[in-house]
Amino acid sequence: MTAHDLTLEGHGIRLDPALPSDAAKAWPLTDPQLWSRMTTAWADSVDAYAARVEQQRATPGLYAFTVRDAVTGAVRGATTFYEYVPAQGRVEIGTTWYGRAFQGGATNPAAKLLLLEHAFEVWSVNRVALRCDARNERSARAIERLGATPEGRLRQHRIAPDGSVGDTLYFSILRAEWPAVRAGLEARLSSAAPA
∠86-81-115 over CA atoms, to 5°? Predict the structure, then answer.
């Protein structure tokens, strides 16, 4: 079981270990259109979302988080560390989504700053990777805005929930690049809208 007790907090948000009971507050922030171009099918009910969280909690090397407002505790979305391989000094960040009201503001850069700080400064990884379906232009732009370096395209790498075959775009941040990425995220947060 990968259930964890890792909580990360700062910049107005808190990343709590995801629990199936979070589904009642998280699922209403989702919809099929928001979920389009994600790698998993949209959970079409609170129970389906809770089952997905339970599956995440059972996946080795995966740390699932519910993203919340640090003051009110209101759910904003979710994110994960996955494919954490301590012996190889690497981890990926992904399976990230936010309710529409929290897109384009401070929530994503704040969450990524907390995750990257933990990965590089606590776990001492050498590499953090991020990926998205090549058709998910919004995610690709968001990853590049973080300061991640594009690494390439894996052709016909994944089958989407609708059965279509898509390419995967890969990005990474290396330990030597982390200080500049951190400075960029901090600058974004100092001028970002509070959402």
Answer: 95
CATH assignment at residue 96: 3.40.630.30
Contacts for 179 with CB less than 8 Å, ≥ 6 apart? none
Query: Can you read off the two tokens belonging to residue 46?
Result: 């609170």
**Has residue 3 been placed in a domain?**
no
pTM of this prediction exceeds 0.90: yes
Based on the structure, what is the number of domains in the chain?
A: 1
Burial string for 93-115 (b: 16+ CB within 10 Å, else e) reads: bbbbbbbeebbebbbbbbbbbbb
Model pLDDT for residues 164-183, shown as the tens digit of each residue: 899 999 999 999 999 999 99
| Confidence (pLDDT) at 193 | 61
> Residue 185's closest CA among 48, 93, 51?
93
Question: Closest Cα to residue 47, out of 35, 58, 55, 37?
Answer: 55
Q: Which residues contact 176 (CB under 8 A, 6 or more apart)?
A: none
Strand (E) or helix (H) holding 184: helix 178-191
Q: Which helix (H) or strand (E) holds 67?
A: strand 63-69
Q: pLDDT tens digits for 143-171? A: 999 999 999 999 999 888 888 899 999 99
- Compute the average pLDDT of residues 28-37: 88
In a domain? residue 127: yes
Closest CA to 79 of 10, 26, 156: 26
